[in-house]
Amino acid sequence: MTSHTPARFCFELQIKPELLDEYIARHTPVWPEMLAEIAAAGRRNYSLFLAEGGRLVGYYETDDDVAAQAYLAQSEVAARWEAEMGKFFVDLAGRPDQAATPLTEIFNLHDQLAAAGDAPTEEGTAS
Known about the structure:
CATH topology: Alpha-Beta Plaits
Strand order of the largest sheet: 2-3-1-4
Number of domains: 1
Radius of gyration: 17 Å
Largest sheet: 4 strands, antiparallel
Protein name: L-rhamnose mutarotase
Helix content: 25-40%
Organism: Microbacterium aquimaris
Strand content: 15-25%
Pfam families: rhaM
CATH class: Alpha Beta
Distance between the termini: 12 Å
InterPro entries: Dimeric_a/b-barrel, Rham/fucose_mutarotase
Mean pLDDT: 90
Number of strands: 4
Shape: globular
Order of helices and strands: EHHEEHHHEH
Low-confidence stretches: none
């Protein structure tokens, strides 16, 4: 049996320090219709992490990021959400979901274990 590993994407943005509390409040919770659009775009396992000073790091997985980006670019709900979120970020040209700085993955445990023939299976044991 072959398994498909989705592509992983990570990005960062800088939140204006004076707006951190409001930014957090806007994400607890995110609009239900925006959550549905993210899922419909094909993004999974989506998380945002906040570091000291307002550094925001996001992560998600998808099978086709070009299609996911295109879907969200055409979404009226996403356009409204991103228009509201734009004010929170430092030096951002464009919509936050399309202007974030991508980060390059340099290590992934699962991938390296798989390459070594030691990747854990879904049951948690090595294959």
